[in-house]
Amino acid sequence: MFRQFQPGLIAVVFVALNCSLQCMGQSQQQTPVPGQEQDPTISSSQTADQRLPGSINGTVVDQTGAVVSGAQVKLSSEERSQNQEVLSGTDGQFFFPKVAPGAFQLTITSARFAMQTFAGTLHSGEVDTIPQIALPVATDVTEVQVGLPRVEVAEEQLKVEEKQRILGAIPNFYVSYVPDAVALTSKEKFKLAWKTVIDPVTLLMVAGSAGVEQWQNHFNEYGQGAQGFAKRFGAGYADTVSGTLIGGAILPSLLKQDPRYFYKGTGSVPSRFLYAMANSVICKGDNGRWQPGYSNILGSLAAGGISNIYYPGNDRNGAELTFENAAIGIGTSAATNVLQEFVIRKLTPKAPKHD
Length: 355
Hints:
Number of domains: 2
Number of strands: 14
Mean pLDDT: 82
Helix content: 40-55%
Shape: rod-shaped
Structural class: alpha/beta
Low-confidence stretches: 1-17, 23-46
Number of helices: 9
Strand content: 15-25%
Order of helices and strands: HHEEEEEEEEHEEEHHHEHEEHH
């Protein structure tokens, strides 16, 4: 009988042993490890999802709904390592990838607009699309104008003046049709003077004056013929060079004065006439203020004094002639200014329009 029931007994023992081992395994799995207790209502997969980064995107517009490009969008969160800054694109959109979940704040700034903020909470793995953020117009705007340095502005204005010619031929360089033109540097004053004295039209005008003097036998000690014409031309050109360089470059550079005539173009006829006459004895300083025209007056005296060196002895009258020529020079300057104010502007095709 023992042999007959032995297989069944072995089977029962095997089943009982297997059940005991399964119970022990379940008991070991349910035993918590010290220091790693967790809420039984939260699974391990849910804990992993809470750490997934998300993203934030949106569009910046103005109060009319037009997109604002180039706006600075700053993301601030509890984790400082997540702080980011981007600029809105040409379509006004911005995008922050890989943002840690949690509370955040957006700060939007742009020129001519008031600062705008937006706060929210990003959930795990969320793609947060923010509604359009409208920027209000700033009530107090500080405008900063960025332009060329004054030296470069003066150079550009000088290039325009160097193209000014009466009837398209006669130099009209020493007139500014820009009332608030930038003061010339010393280099630019010498450049303008030199361009004037070497201009072909200037040489032709001196030659014409020398021809008239020879025809009238003025400065008869010079004689006639080619030699006499050359002497008269040399004396006249020396007057032009000395007067232009001294009164238009050397003294204006030393005394910080502007040698140009500033076209007025507005106001009544009497006021413009008096303005033109006064500019023969006053001038604008490099500081923009009106002051006595020492450069023009002293330049005429200096040029007259130098002329005594090369003019014939019979035509030299010393100081008397020098002051007489200076007075004539001032009167000529006044008459020229009146013509500049009322006539020459209309005969100068490339002069800029007066505002």
